[in-house]
Amino acid sequence: MKIKKGDTVLIISGKDRGRKAKVIEALPKQGRLLIEGINLRKKHVKPKKSGEKGQIVETPAPLNASDVKLICPKCGKAVRVEYKIEGKKKYRICKKCKQEI
Ligand SMILES: [Zn+2]
Q: 3: which of 25, 58, 65, 91 is 20 to 30 A away, CA to CA?
């Protein structure tokens, strides 16, 4: 997967389209990403102790990696990335500005 935890991405489909947010977690096995404040789902939380009220909290649900584009920290644009392998090192390169990201 080309997007990692901590990356800033642009959402390109769904109800949050056009928003920019940070990746909180990458789930490479599922090809999905958990993104801060994006694709929020309401979740009911049961009270832990008697006498407490149940709550509704909003938690982000994972989004398909194909629904986002990486924002390059070097040129600030929504870009595609490619991998470059040199010996044992693997670099991510921005296709627009050609810099390592
Ligand atoms: Zn760039």
A: 58
